[in-house]
Amino acid sequence: MLKASHKTGLVFFPAFDWAISATHPEREERLLYTQDQVLEEGLFDVNGITEYKSELVDIKDVQRVHFSYPDAWRVMTESHFISAGGAKTIAKAVMDKSVERGFALVRPPGHHAMRVVHGGRGFCNVNNEAIMLEYLRQAYGIDRVAIVDTDCHHGDGTQDIYWHDPDTLYISMHQDGRTMYPGSGFTQELGGPNAAGTTLNIPLPPYTGEAGFLHALNEVVLPAIDEFQPELIINSAGQDNHFTDPLTNMLFTAQGYSELTRLLKPDIVVLEGGYSIEGALPYVNIGIILALAGMDYSHVIEPGYDPEKLKQTETVTRTVEQTCETVMASWKQREAIGQRLRGDQEFAERRRSVFYDTEEIHETQNETLRLCPECSGALKIDSTSDRGAHILAIHVPRKSCSNCRNLGYQWYESAKTKAYDMICIQDRVEDSYLVKTP
Amino acid sequence: MIIGLDVGGTHTDVVLIGKEGLEKQVKVPTDTSALFQTVLTGLEKITEKIPPGQITHAVLSTTLTTNAIIQDKLTPAGMIITGGPGIDPEAFRTDAHYFIVPGAIDHSGREIEAIDPETVKTAADQLAASGIRHVGVVGKFSARNPMHERQIEEIIRDRFDKVFLGHLISGNFGFPRRINTTFLNASVYPVHRNFFEAVKKSLKQKGITVPIHILKADGGTMGLDTSIDFPGQSILSGPAASIMGSVAFAQDGAETLVLDIGGTSTDMAVLINRVPLLAPNGVDISDYKTLIRALKTKSIGIGGDSCVRVVNGRLTIGPDRSGPAMGYGGPAPTPTDALFVLDRSEGGDRELAIKGIDPLASQLGLSVEETAYEIFDKTCREILAGARRMIEDINSKPVYTVKEALQGYQVNPDHILVLGGPAPYFAEHFQNISGYAVETIPECQVANAIGTALSRTTCEVTLFADTQKGLATAPEESFSQTVNLDFSRQDAHRMAAALLKQKAVRLGADAKDIETEMIEDLEFNIVRGFRLMGKNFRVKQQIKPGLIHDYYTISKKIAESCVQSSIDFHE
Description:
The complex is a heterodimer of chains A (438) and B (571). By secondary structure, chain A is of the alpha/beta class. Chain A folds into two domains: 3-335, Histone deacetylase domain (Arginase, Chain A); 344-436, no CATH class. Chain A has helices spanning 32-41, 59-63, 72-75, 78-95, 128-140, 156-161, 210-228, 254-264, 281-292, 314-332, 334-342, 402-414; strands spanning 3-13, 47-52, 67-68, 101-106, 116-117, 145-149, 168-175, 199-204, 232-237, 268-271, 347-356, 361-370, 379-385, 390-396, 422-427, 432-436. An eight-stranded parallel β-sheet of chain A has the order 2-1-4-10-9-6-7-8, sandwiched between helices. A six-stranded mixed β-sheet of chain A has the order 11-12-13-14-15-16, covered by helices on one side. In chain A, α1 (32-41) packs across α9 and α7 packs parallel to α10. By secondary structure, chain B is α/β, with parallel strands linked by helices. Chain B has four domains: 2-71 and 191-243, ATPase, nucleotide binding domain (Nucleotidyltransferase, domain 5, 2-Layer Sandwich), CATH 3.30.420.40; 78-185, Rossmann fold (3-Layer(aba) Sandwich), CATH 3.40.50; 251-265 and 301-440, Nucleotidyltransferase, domain 5; 459-543, no CATH class. In chain B, α8 (335-341) packs across α9. Chain B is globular and about 75 Å long. Chain B starts with a strand and ends in a 7-residue tail after the last helix. The interface between A and B is large, with 51 and 44 residues.
């Protein structure tokens, strides 16, 4: 009888009755053929593979991560509660040691959802991994975590949420932002002044193949993780690097994804994008599950697989190698980079704009971070959308010092409800979320 | 009148049911080494002095195929397998006579790799050379497109006595289960066929020519001829017989937990509005996970004759049985002995029972009566704990739609129905410690045979329709029809219902008594390149397990007469 050498938990929530719109890539049909493949393989019958029923996250789980306008209920649909809940269910099973590793095969995805949420971005409304991780930190006292994002699109939402968090190493490998949504994720994006180097971006040129992905993994991801020493490794597993994906231009394969999973040894995998619903997803998902469970995946060869045709060019190989060297150089100098960014200022400010493509909302953010020597610093985001919403969002980090925490509350108390549509403070020390509205 | 015959471990129950109710009941000892004789004796006794013309049919539930599998007395069968991307089919090897040949179909039924007739012929040569007479042919995704299985059958069918095709066995996905199920069908085929041909012949010699139906693990019946092609469906019909028997006693609209307490074990099931829940995939037997439709049952190793011990200062009950209760001259103390000591049950020798429990009492530092009470209480609590685990298991089954996730329907029985020999003695205590309303089926110890006699024919049908491909298929029914782009969900429902009715009648159902039920109903837009190209429908319909409509009132009548004659423990 088949046996998993690593006990593996799965949540499968294909949301067969939920779509962004009828012909949208994020539609009912997306995981249909994956379901067929999973059921036909009999994966849930394998000794050591357990299927879990997805729970729903509650509003507190969402408020631990996001500032949603007008509120979490109105930026989320039911499916978002279940999708994030699937990640949470799997994470609990891993933490409770019911299984060694887990994979949440859920939709909709989440890695483009940032800390402030005015609407949907890149098919994402709330960030499944962040909601799961902050729950784990709250409930299980987890501290240092690495998130490795292998979706073809830069996970700008996860990057945003952990930009100032020195305890979360966020590494994204993705198709170069000059050729792909959301247009970010360049090597110089390394995290905020208090967390320099704990964000790493490996932009890969179009037509990167197995060799390039595995090079990035072996030369950047694994060494950085090795040095960072996380308690948990989370993989945001987008499957749109596949050579058949309709939205991207990469040459990755089911074998490549399986190999990557075997080498990365993630504790928790959360499905992100991937829209080649017949040609890639059934095979990539099977490959990832088998690799997680420590089972043989050598027969997971998708139709159309031809190693010769899918080989990346020499130019691509050189570009990937150079990029990896650049990223590793920054990683090694991260202390110095942080010091340079902080200088001797008390506050760091950042102004940026965010576009929500689903509803075409433009948001402008003015961010103020206290450059605290004791903690990662109180954070204040003044956010205005072109729909007229003006909000003030204050984040007191999990390991905040009392000065930063007091400052957070000072900001909160002194902000006038006349000036804002919503003022909120997310206090991760107390695990509370307060809102003032006019 | 209908004959119902249920072969149990120790005795075989036979009933004759007519329009007036239970006409006759017979109990004969089961001789597992001469099952044929047991069945024949049972049928002879029940038909004695009954004019043959009055019997419409007989339904049999035997342990024949079950025992063949559990005791590993299978006739060697060959397997020819086609795989495809995914897990290496070598992992599902049944035995030495297992050949993986080229050929692959993908999840959507497209051919990825053609079969190679020469390799198939070579495999067939080797199987034939090993003396194999029965062969199973199974392809990955054959439930979506059975083309390769049929092509292979075409090549090999003249070489063997019988070829079983995986896609005909179930419309459900699950390649390893399909392999196991096909293998079991091929392996029990000779023993099943020989047995029932002999039964038929012997009955004919005695002038009894009634149609014979076979009970299945899902609590439904199939005609004998069908069972020859699908002998695997007859496994584990024993628990189904008891549960179907309890259906007559359950209340309309209630969620009922059925506990069938036997000597060695307690079998459990859940009825919702008198319909038993089905197992989600298929039945497990020995080391085989199958696609054989079965009632959702759970068996725990606690019964009236379970061995009671003290281990590390604590009482343990079961899971083994070493013989009858000491009160009946058995070798080890049992919960039944506890009943004798507590004067809750009669018939056994109380002194012998005390002698059995006494050593346990001194180990525990309690009196014999106190120990007997502890045994009694623990038996009831462990049975209920087992039931709770089963219900948790049912409720933790994942759902795949937002609607189901939000509705969060949870099974929550408020009634317990207890069957089996020791049932009446435990019932009151169940009620005290669970808070559920508890009813027993005490005198009526042939509920299993009644269930066997009155079960209706069940079956299910899976229909796929893809309007982009312009095809509706039900491979299990060997059905395929072209459809237009405007083929709708309602069309799919109608098509599935028609297929289901045909199938039910073919299996022996009364065409007037067919109640269909939708068990899966999904519709997907097929979008390619951001354009809507068509629709994909997946419809599954079934005839749910239940009692034959015409006999509904009769089953009620039998149930009432049984209950009236029972001891009312509330007093």
